[in-house]
Write a structure and sequence with these properties.
single chain, 2 domains, TATA-Binding Protein, 3 helices, alpha+beta
Length: 150
C-alpha cells in the first residue's frame, strides 16, 4: 500500500498550515466565481457595478436599490416625470426633509413604490419596488426612465 504525500514546490512536505492556506485561497476564488455566476444568471441578490459616472445598482428582496449622484430635489422631479411617461397613476407623494416617498399604480394595477433618501447634498439613495413581491425588469425600466428624465 502506497501513501500519497503532498509536497511543496521545494520538495518539503506540506503542513496543515500550508494546506489550510491553499484551501482558503481556493475557497475565496470559488466564492468570487460563484457570485459572478449568480450575477449573470440573476439568482439571489444581484449586484451590478456600472461604468464611469454611473452608480452601483442592486436588486435584493424584491427591491431595486441605487445611489445616484444627483440631489434629492432633481431626482424627485425626474421620478414624477418618469412615472407620468410610463403611464403610471400617481396615488400619493410624501415629502419630508431629506426623504420623498412616491406611491403609484401601473396600468395593470400593480403597486409601484419609490423611496428617495438624501445621503448628502449631491447623492441620493433610490429604492424602487414594482408589484407586491418585486419585479426586477419593471423596476429597472422605472430606473432607466428616471435617468432619462434627468
Amino acid at each position: 500500500m502506497q501513501i500519497l504525500s503532498l509536497s511543496t514546490p521545494r520538495g518539503r512536505p506540506e503542513t496543515r498550515r500550508t494546506i489550510g492556506r491553499r484551501l482558503r485561497g481556493g475557497g475565496l476564488a470559488f466564492a468570487i466565481g460563484l457570485s459572478l455566476l449568480c450575477a449573470t444568471t440573476g439568482c439571489g441578490a444581484l449586484l451590478l457595478l456600472g461604468g464611469a459616472g454611473t452608480s452601483a445598482v442592486a436588486f435584493a428582496t424584491g427591491e431595486l436599490r441605487s445611489t445616484e449622484d444627483i440631489g434629492l430635489a432633481r431626482l424627485d422631479v425626474a421620478s414624477g416625470l418618469a412615472l407620468d411617461t410610463l403611464g403610471y397613476e400617481t396615488l400619493s407623494v410624501t415629502r419630508e426633509p431629506g426623504f420623498v416617498h412616491w406611491k403609484a399604480r401601473t396600468p395593470s394595477g400593480d403597486p409601484v413604490d419609490l423611496r428617495l433618501r438624501a445621503r448628502d447634498p449631491q447623492r441620493t439613495e433610490l429604492r424602487i419596488r414594482v408589484g407586491v413581491f418585486g419585479d426586477e425588469t419593471r423596476s429597472r425600466l422605472v430606473l432607466e426612465q428616471i435617468r432619462q428624465s434627468l
